[in-house]
């Protein structure tokens, strides 16, 4: 298992990069987001990787962040989502946006990605809704995908302590943040999120 590659960025294509590690060029599939984040050709580069093994091939997929790799694993665990579709979703949405979309059941946002129709978007949202809550909890313990920051994160934590499910808490707080704006206080966020979650 190859967990990451650290070397020199040799070249990039529409959906891949070649990383030169000690004279060996590794062809790594990647999302548009990762390709724009890894820096210029000829410079040092590091990618988190996932190795895909099938009957007739072994491929590497690379990610600029561990968050993106974690989402790739979650997405490819959904029936009907292969590596290409997962990369298309990660090209269209940042991990934090994807987490918000799934937590709030926003299948239209997921369907923005190339190759994702309404039915597949619905399946992704349904299958990952509870898992996203688990990720939100893992973040609080020091790993995984970026949670809501500042007062938003504290508000989610407050709702979790009151017994709400992680997905419900995340969705209610995201909705409250949208309504109140970026400068909302923790108190106001929790009050509005509680009203939204209780509906």
UniProtKB/TrEMBL annotation:
It comes from the Bacteria. The keyword Ion transport does not apply. Residues 1-64 are annotated as: Domain I. It is found in: Cytoplasm. Keywords: Cytoplasm, DNA damage, DNA recombination, DNA repair, DNA-binding. Its main location: cytoplasm. SUPFAM superfamilies: DNA helicase RuvA subunit, C-terminal domain, Nucleic acid-binding proteins, RuvA domain 2-like. Gene3D superfamilies: 5' to 3' exonuclease, C-terminal subdomain, DNA helicase RuvA subunit, C-terminal domain, Nucleic acid-binding proteins. One of its GO terms (cellular component) is cytoplasm. Residues 73-92, 108-127 form the Helix-hairpin-helix DNA-binding motif class domain. InterPro entries: DNA_helicase_Holl-junc_RuvA_I, Hlx-hairpin-Hlx_DNA-bd_motif, NA-bd_OB-fold, RuvA, RuvA_2-like, RuvA_C, RuvA_C_sf. Residues 151-199 are annotated as: Domain III. One of its GO terms (biological process) is DNA repair. Pfam families: HHH_5, RuvA_C, RuvA_N. GO terms for molecular function: ATP binding; four-way junction DNA binding; four-way junction helicase activity. Belongs to the RuvA family. Homotetramer. Forms an RuvA(8)-RuvB(12)-Holliday junction (HJ) complex. HJ DNA is sandwiched between 2 RuvA tetramers; dsDNA enters through RuvA and exits via RuvB. An RuvB hexamer assembles on each DNA strand where it exits the tetramer. Each RuvB hexamer is contacted by two RuvA subunits (via domain III) on 2 adjacent RuvB subunits; this complex drives branch migration. In the full resolvosome a probable DNA-RuvA(4)-RuvB(12)-RuvC(2) complex forms which resolves the HJ. The RuvA-RuvB-RuvC complex processes Holliday junction (HJ) DNA during genetic recombination and DNA repair, while the RuvA-RuvB complex plays an important role in the rescue of blocked DNA replication forks via replication fork reversal (RFR). RuvA specifically binds to HJ cruciform DNA, conferring on it an open structure. The RuvB hexamer acts as an ATP-dependent pump, pulling dsDNA into and through the RuvAB complex. HJ branch migration allows RuvC to scan DNA until it finds its consensus sequence, where it cleaves and resolves the cruciform DNA. Has three domains with a flexible linker between the domains II and III and assumes an 'L' shape. Domain III is highly mobile and contacts RuvB. This is Holliday junction branch migration complex subunit RuvA. It comes from Sphingomonas zeae. The gene is ruvA.
């Amino acid at each position: 298992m190859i967990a990451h590659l650290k070397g020199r960025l040799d070249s990039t294509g529409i959906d891949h990069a070649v990383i030169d590690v000690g004279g060996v060029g590794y062809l790594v599939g990647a999302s548009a987001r990762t390709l724009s984040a890894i820096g210029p050709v000829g410079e040092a580069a590091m990618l988190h990787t996932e190795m895909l093994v099938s009957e007739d091939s072994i491929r590497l997929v690379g990610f600029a962040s561990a968050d993106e790799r974690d989402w790739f694993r979650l997405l490819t665990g959904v029936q009907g989502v292969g590596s290409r579709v997962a990369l298309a979703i990660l090209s269209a949405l940042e991990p934090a946006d994807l987490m918000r979309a799934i937590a709030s059941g926003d299948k239209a946002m997921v369907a923005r990605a190339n190759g994702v129709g309404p039915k597949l978007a619905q399946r992704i949202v349904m299958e990952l809704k509870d898992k996203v809550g688990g990720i939100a909890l893992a973040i609080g313990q020091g790993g995984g995908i970026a949670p809501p920051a500042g007062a938003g994160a504290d508000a989610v934590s407050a709702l979790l302590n009151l017994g709400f499910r992680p997905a419900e808490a995340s969705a209610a707080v995201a909705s409250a943040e949208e309504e109140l704006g970026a400068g909302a206080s923790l108190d106001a966020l929790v009050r509005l999120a509680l009203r939204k979650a209780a509906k």
